[in-house]
Amino acid sequence: MTEEERFRKRVDNLIDGAYSGKLVLLPFLDTNYQQIVKTSFKHNEKVKPYFYGGYSDAEYKRAIFYYDVPKDEMFNIAKLKIDYSRLNGSINHRSILGSVLGLGLKREIVGDIILYEDNYYILVDAKMKDFAIDNLNYIGNVPVKLIEVSYNLENQNKYLEKVCFLASLRLDVIIAGFYNLSRSSAQELIKSGLVKVNHKDTLNISMVLKENDLLSIRGKGRLIVNRVNGKTKSGNLVVEFKKPID
After folding, report:
1. pLDDT beyond 70 at 45
2. CA separation for the pair 219, 136 (Å, rounded)
3. pTM, two decimal places
């Protein structure tokens, strides 16, 4: 049984518990596992899944199975500001996540890491906030302090934007076009297991992507298919991409 099959079975069991009146709260889920939850509720009407990640448009979200729209505080998410002096060095998304996971916390305990008004914030399961505050003293070599906040956050992460003219939205075509690689080189990345689409491993070089899909390539970072903006006279698609910048 694969990890996804085990998760789907777990969700089915939790749905039964929700029908008996129990409030079910799941950890942070990536978009792939959020979709599994949604499809598991196709034929259920009494209880529904609700998702929230600590702020609007979050990528990693917790799920609640409930008979009514839950309040935000029911998702049990703490917002932690990273306080540090720029004189001691710099931090970025990758170094923050690596340091947090280096404490022994599982990925499902940690939500998004966002930049808001020139400060980084970590969204975490509120049950683990004290542990994170007490133990995350450094990110890399930079001394830091975590401070819990209650105000609303907005993702202000920066992106590199690029327009490509592509023959199709096939996965290998997108990788080759955006990164200026040959098709064979792009296909080799996929066949080597270095590529994920919407957090899910894929070896399918001919997979067709769509707007808002998230592409991850080990060693190259993440890429969002932002918009397909028509075609050129020669018939190529005009595709706008966004690449997160640390």
Report:
1. no
2. 26
3. 0.84
